[in-house]
Design a protein that fits this description.
Blueprint: H1 2-18, E1 40-44, E2 48-50, E3 57-59, E4 62-65, E5 72-87, E6 93-106, E7 116-119, E8 122-124, H2 129-134, E9 144-147, E10 154-165, E11 171-179
Antiparallel strand pairs: 1-4, 2-3, 3-8, 4-7, 5-6, 5-9, 5-10, 10-11
Amino acid sequence: MRKLGISAVLSLLVTALAAVPALAAGTPVFDPTAVPNGTHVQTGSPSCAFGPGPQDVTCSAYELAGVGNRNATATLTATYSATIDCRNGGGNIVAVKTGTFTDTSTTGRLSPKNGRLPIPELTVTAPSEEEFLAKQRCPNRNWTPEIQEGTTITLDSSLYTLVFDREGGMPTSLSSTRKQ
């Protein structure tokens, strides 16, 4: 019964993500065997939303109970893209490609106390144009990448994952995915 409770809450997480018009419906991934037997949400509500900026992703803080002594790690990963032009030394555009940028926020390893595991808020902030361009490469190292005029950096997908250490050392995971 408690596994059904966490499943329902995680379904709300997926619903919260699906309610944002900027992203199309994604495919949630939930393995009910991925959490320790008896795990349930004690306080808060696991959910992710977009903001404070239009391309930022924030997942709420909450607390799980019934996790026993199982450590866990929560991770939020967001992938951004933009159309990149490569400009040669003569000022001509010589290549057009899609550039990507991935950023991750993680809790690090969380250890429960008395069977309760607080999960802090995680946020990934959209990269600035400078940060995005610093990760881009053109086919020729003498060319300069730039974001194509009239285009912007957009959020393509986000993935929130809570991974528990399995008894015996093997990890299991619980995740929610959003793709455009």
